[in-house]
Amino acid sequence: MKYILYVLTLLLMLGCGSQKKTVVAEPEPRPSWVSSKPVEGNAYSGIGMAYKSSGSDFIAIAKNNALNDLASEISVNISSNSLFYQIEQDDNLRAEFQANTRLKSKENLEGYELVASYENANEYWVYYKLNKAQFLTLKEKRLQNAIGLAKQFYTNSVQFKEQGLFAESIKFNIKALAALKDYLADPITTTWNDQEVFIIPELYSNLQETVSSIKLIPPQTSIATKRGQAISSSQLYFLATNKNGDKLAGLPVYFFYSGQRITNNQLYTNANGVVGFTINKVTSTNNKEYFQANINMVALVSESTDDPFIRKLVAKISAPEARIEITIEKPQIYIESTELNLDKTMANKYLANAFKQNFIAEGFDIANSKKQADYFLKIEANTQADGMQQKLVSASLYATITFTDHNESLLYEKPISNFKGVQLTTEKAGEDAYRKLASEIDKRYFREMRRKVFD
């Protein structure tokens, strides 16, 4: 028994002796750069952190934050000799410009190096550094390349302008500005025509001068028309010239008509510098409208650059415009009506009067003769007896309504048959049918004709 106890005690001691002690690793101490960003005179520094709870891409987030921090150290100063300082008074656009410049600074970061990284259970940190001298050398190289490209575009712009190709001149001028889009706040100088110039304000000033020298000339500043009629491009056209009177081809023009929405209204001047538009039908009920043409700067910018900030700057340049005032006169309507009841002429012309009242209410004039008229309404109507219906007499009305213009072109036609009237006598039944049809003219047929011809 003592032997068994001895063996059990020995086994227990051996078991306890075989257990290893658990070693708890000490957490790595936070480096000083995590708590306090280093200040280095010859380098920019950027530090970024991301929580591991952000997901599997927390390392990429921390690196991106570090690069943003690095870019923010590269100051954005707007020089008084820069284009942006000279023309921009919009605080919102100024803030957008500064944010955009910081983004460009980040995109242009080259030569930065990873100094260190640190992580604990919850955080991941990254520390980048960029040598200032190296950065400025690379920046100067990019700047000189941009200046070279801008000067080439500017040369092309000047040559196109001398050839009278103003659309191409404007587009290459915009391309020259876009080539220097990262330097709008900088006082960049270069030699141009043997003179030292601030190139970006020079480009913008030339663009303003080129655009403002374009003239849009209408053949006449006012025209008259009537509702329902067309206005052809032989009346609605504009001539584009420069200040010397030379005709300018290929310029995009945007049209606006105050009387109604128009489509396909962005056209180009032809070889003779002319661009025109046709309004197929004047539907406005106003006495006055206008038709306006603008040089389409949006189209020129879109064909030149996709940079949103350059587009906004160019949009500040006032585009040449011209307009034609349009007087809309009341159409003259001549009504001819043959209204018979049982083959006999009626004293009261129910249908003609119904149309006449509606025309006047809608702003039309009733002509006294066909020669004065712009439109001609013709009504032919007659009734016939239908027999007895429960001690009452029935009659049917048959009519044809046609509406033509002064050239006798058919605009509207409505045949009406078997329109019933019921009364004590056939004659009164025929009159009843006329009254009912006159009511339908008010409710239906006049509106139907108006929509088709005038709306």
In short:
By secondary structure, this protein is an alpha+beta fold.
Summarize this structure as a short list of keywords or feature phrases.
single chain; alpha+beta; Endonuclease I-creI; Immunoglobulin-like; Rossmann fold; five-stranded mixed β-sheet; 38% helix
Number of strands: 19
Q: Give me the secondary-structure category.
A: alpha+beta
What is the average per-residue confidence, as pLDDT, rounded to a whole number?
88
CATH class of the domain at 332-453: Alpha Beta
Description of the structure:
About 2% of the residues have low confidence. The protein has 455 residues and is α+β, with helices and mostly antiparallel strands. The longest helix has 31 residues. Among the domains are: 83 residues, Acetamidase/Formamidase-like domains (Endonuclease I-creI, Roll); 102 residues, Sandwich (Immunoglobulin-like); 122 residues, 3-Layer(aba) Sandwich (Rossmann fold), CATH 3.40.50. 38% of the residues lie in helices and 29% in strands. It has twelve helices and 19 strands. The strands form five sheets. Strands 14, 15, 16, 17, 18 and 19 form a six-stranded mixed beta sheet that branches.
SSE layout:
Elements lengths: L1 H17 L13 H4 L7 E9 L6 H15 L10 H5 L3 H17 L5 E7 L3 E9 H31 L3 H14 L9 E4 L2 E4 H14 L2 E3 L4 E5 L10 E5 L10 E6 L8 E3 L5 E3 L11 E8 L1 H6 L5 H8 L5 E9 L2 E10 L2 E2 L4 H12 L3 E2 L8 E15 L2 E14 L4 E14 L2 H28 L2
Parallel strand pairs: 7-13, 14-16, 14-17
Antiparallel strand pairs: 1-3, 2-3, 4-5, 6-8, 8-11, 9-10, 9-12, 12-13, 14-15, 17-18, 18-19
Helix pairs in contact: 3-5, 6-7, 7-8, 11-12
